[in-house]
Design brief:
alpha+beta; Glutaredoxin; 4-stranded mixed sheet; 156 residues; 4 strands
């Protein structure tokens, strides 16, 4: 089997997600920490938008977490994480999209980065901005909790 390498940096939730799926499928992989290479030509050669994670499987390179997770699940999945039922698969995609579009930008970037990442990098935290920017995420979270309860009770 071709060698698998996951590129990123350890604190990224998206890199962690890709690593969890690789581990779930018992895929042996190397980890290449890009922390010191971010926004360099080497990084740009792997990802045109200079983000993480990136997966290399032999001579095939793929970026974007959803694409990586789907690829790993299909190629290495003896016990698939993706439902075979179209409606359940669509619901899974819906939740993944909601997390990426609504929760991550507010809760992870504005809350976690301000409190954890920026101080680790020597950047001052702006608590007032963090509070202002995180408020929409709590509205989304509340709506999502109602949707989950509805879905789990068979109403949604």
């Amino acid at each position: 089997m071709s060698e698998v390498t996951l590129y990123g940096f350890p604190r990224s939730v998206y890199v962690q997600m890709a690593g969890i799926v690789l581990t779930h499928h018992e895929v042996a992989f190397a980890f290449h920490d890009l922390e010191t290479e971010m926004n360099t030509p080497a990084h740009l050669a792997l990802h045109p938008f200079e983000r993480v994670p990136i997966l290399r499987h032999g001579d095939f390179t793929l970026y974007e977490t959803d694409a990586i997770v789907g690829y790993v699940d299909e190629v290495f999945g003896s016990c698939r994480l993706t439902p075979s039922d179209p409606q359940l698969r669509a619901r899974m995609s819906q939740w993944m999209s909601a997390v990426n579009g609504y929760y991550y930008p507010y809760l992870v970037y504005h809350v976690s980065h301000e409190r954890n990442v920026f101080p680790q990098l020597g950047i001052a935290s702006d608590e007032a901005m963090r509070c202002t920017r995180s408020k929409p995420a709590f509205r989304y979270w509340s709506a999502s909790c109602r949707a989950v309860i509805s879905f789990c009770s068979g109403l949604g």
